[in-house]
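Subject: sequence -> structure tokens, single chain

Hey, anyone have a minute? Need the predicted structure for the following. Not urgent.
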Amino acid sequence: MISKLLNSNRRDQFMAGLAVVAITAGVIGVSTYAPVMAKTAPANATLARVDTAGFADLIEAVSPAVVAISVKGSATQNPLSMPEFQLPPGSPFEEFYDRFFKYRDRGNHTEPRKYNAQGSGFIVDPDGIVVTNHHVVKGAEEIMIITKGGKEYAAKLKGYDAKTDLAVLQVETDGELPYVVFGDSESARVGDWVLAIGNPFGLGGTATSGIISARGRDINAGPLDDFLQIDAPINRGNSGGPLFNANGHVIGVNTAIFSPNGGNVGIGFAIPSSMASTIVDQLTSKGHVERGWLGVQIQGLTDDLAESLGLSEAKGALVSSIIEDSPAQHAGMLVGDVIITFDGNDVDEMRDLPRIVANTPADSNAKVDVWRNGKVHSLDVKVGESERETPVEIGSNERSSKGKLGLALAELNDETRARYRVDDESDGVVVVRVVPGSPAAKKGIRPGDVIKMVGNSEVEKPDQVVREVKKAVDDERKSVLLLVERDGSDRFVAVSIG
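Reply:
Had a minute. Here:
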């Protein structure tokens, strides 16, 4: 599945694609590849030919654990022709995504249609635990995996994590399956060889190679972005497949590509195994992910801010507000503090802190060093647990068009307010997803909007919105009236309900 982002040419015509193509990988020991230093040969020299197996041994060893994933479901659009992707509010790519891709499904279908989609995955446990992308199986009514040998197995969704686009499936099988294991992405360096195996365009068992081009990429996909950038060709259908190092260990789950036309141009992104492995463990054992919570809003440091605070360099996360009754408040943290380390981890940039805190177990004690009044102060923080967001879907998969808005809503809490930049004084429910081509999308509703009223009723929980929409359907109305807040301004929107 592919979703679109931004690229530009010399004439400043912006047309681009963020192709969502996740991949995670495997385990089997293989010989490493020694570098060969080139020298200038004499003009009359005969060059010896080096005989090498390339990646053949590696592919033969790990490919049995890589699977194709076939998904059947219902949607208002075919995910293969126009896959869904929601940019975060305020993303610099949002304007261009809306202009070129948001309304490209010319059919404007409002009735759910059956679709078949394909992705990739890999087995990490002989008992049939499969890792893939959340977007590959999202909303699926039937999931099948197909092995290298062509065997098909039914699979069930065991758990997913929307923030990192990871999902775990359980395969129904009586015997043991071949599997691979996660490796250490932290030791991977720019320039290291990588190998991707997956199911691009339905061509299962396809292997491509390349190198790690960069580390720590933030592509505005979410608050926990920390992607490996690779140039191994990955395309539509590679979503959820594995990225291997030269030793046959999975070091990444390829999740996106930048592209002007939906095809590979040599810029891909993979979720590092250091993040994916811990999430997969939690999804396998608990079915959900528990994350640490500090309870602060932060901003990055500029050179001017750093100088005014007495810091020698612009490193750390500046605390701009503290949530009442949060772990940060109980630990004595103050607005204006600069967090420079958390639980022994350096906070070089603002975006480092959410990842570090999220990976810290809830109820654990963490030492936090902050810069305050020209000195370093050490605080003891008892880490809280981040609230698990459980969006309520309103009309994303229903077979009937009645009451079909095409929205996913979540309750306003500290986390959703911070993520979608909702004012503390605002009440209602926040929109976390809008189905492209849906009635809500056609009326311009987008993630981050706050629905305050449905008809004449104020709402504070997603279930209340569902109840009021159902009332409108029962009353045989053609539309439902929503009071929507965006950027501090309210407006009424009439959305069709069939």
